[in-house]
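To close the chapter, one final illustration. This time we ask the reader to focus less on the individual chains and more on the assembly as a whole: which components sit near each other, and how the overall shape emerges from the parts.
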Amino acid sequence: MSLRVSRRTVLAGLAAGIVGTAIGLRLYYWPGGDVTREAKRLAGILRHPDSAVWLGRLYLDEKPREADVALLVRLIDAARGPALPPVTPAADEALRADLNERIRNDFIYGNTVAVDGWLLSLTEARLCALVSLLRNAEPGSAA
Amino acid sequence: MIEDARRLSEDTLIETDLAIIGAGAAGITIARELAGTDMRICLLESGGLEFEQDTQNLYDGENGGRWYFPLDTCRLRYFGGSTNHWGGWCRPLTPIDFEARDWVPYSGWPITRADLDPYYERAQTVTETGPFRYDATAFWEEQTGAKMLPLSLGLITTTFFQYSPPTRFGTRYRKDIEQATNVRALLHATVTEIETSETGAEVTGLRVATLGGPSFRVRAHRYILATGAIENPRLLLQSNRTQPAGVGNTHDLVGRFFMEHPHVPGVAGMVTSRPEAFNAAYTQHLSLADSIVHAALIPTDALLRRERLQQAVFTIGVMGVYTAENLAGEAPADQQRARDIFNLQRDLDPPRTTDHPPAGYNDWPPAGALGANCTFGCACEQAPNPDSRVTLSDERDALGLPRARLDWRLSEADKLSLNRIVRAVADEFGAQGLGRVRPALSDDGNWPEQTIGGYHHMGTTRMADSPELGVVDANCKVHGVANLYIAGSSVFTTGGASNPTLTIVALALRLADHLRTRSS
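The assembled structure is written out below.
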């Protein structure tokens, strides 16, 4: 018995593959540099990483699909416009102000999430999740 | 003049112009207002000048609904009434509280806040509180020299409580009653029955008893029932000699619509890295030159209207402060997550502003405080519910009278409204960088077990223009009874979220004015 595949099915499969690959590349190759550097820069805003790790783990327990550094970076940066400026202290303050605005808007527009019962902005919860994932990825991490 | 009714002769008949039943905040206020007029007044008080257990026992009753305080401990039965254990919290109902809101069943007073404003102003003096300025943030900023919270989303706003010393009406105004030549106050005089004509259209007299002493009668031109929102319906219902359903109860409304202000201790937690933003007015009673104030949070009218919510009020209690010293050590296990939230907030939120008083202003925030762990207290509005009610028990008191039975009921809608307002506080605080909030309520309509009342009994002889919707009219006269009035929080149509005493006094002043006008 031979398996017959229609031309339409082949074309649809090719199209799906191309779109999927494009999304993957978009997630993996960040336009302003590599995604790990961007992730570390965002995570660096949080100066109490131990607290962020705990909160991040709790968030990811509820949202396991977001347990991906590239995805989290993209979600946090989604509404922040073009690539970030070079890494300087002044730029970090600009990043903090930018995140403040995101957090404020999250509360205004109801983009909040309960983490251990605390109502947090999605942006700050994802920042914590990012810190948590990066901690896991460190050499010697138990996770 | 104040006398002990136990010294009267059996079957004495006292004839007077106005009989006031109950010497609490309402009864004493009306008697004082009418002192010095040509009206003869008889003020009847079940208790003495001090607490007496046997009289207090007359308040014992049954609780049949959700948990409520024992009925003999949530009010006081002696001269001055429950002001003898009053906490002194004062705040008027807000204008929207008087409105008919189509999302709150049975809402809508027949009077407006503007109608009561002149009496609220006078009630400030009676309760020994400051200026009649409750929602005037700029005024209190000027008085305190401190900025109030920057709340700009239009979800919640700052309001102010004022504190009465608290005024113990029985002590503070006893001399006024003693010296009033037209007022005869009788102690230990428990009214056991309101007698009416055969049709029930007129009160013809009061039967009065004393514990172990004489019984007597009082006959007046007009009568005021002012014994609180549990005893008022009790006395009306038990006065059923000519009217089997009780006095003023043609439409089976007496005792229904019992309302409280549900309090949920620790309704939400809050952590802030900006303790200076919460100036001392939010965290403690602030003593000013002529008033004591405390800032609180309420939903805006816009939020209430847009999302069809009921009233609520929140106060902030400080559980502890974060300092460099205590942050250096490990947090107790049950406080670790709050500390994590604090750390997150101080990493992310905007830097502190400088437009607040320096640390130490009225001892808040304490020197070295980097943040605070707080809890919200709340009182909220319960929508009028005819099934939440006071009825008569099968048990009887020492005078042979049926005891009161309370069936307090809250609805899912009441709870869901509170849930939403707590979320609004969380959104406003988060957006302004003021703190992060942890609501302690479940998302459903179930009230937590620890929900209690505030000793605020309201609604059981409610005010409405129509006798089919209320027991008293806009002048507090009982529908269908020519000469019987009711004073006190039992006439509240809705309860808002404000402590009731100031409104009780304002309504009493208004009733006194009404009677004075009619008399003249």
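The longest strand of chain B covers residues 312-323. Confidence is low (pLDDT under 50) at residues 354-360 of chain B. With these observations in hand, you are ready for the problems at the end of the chapter.
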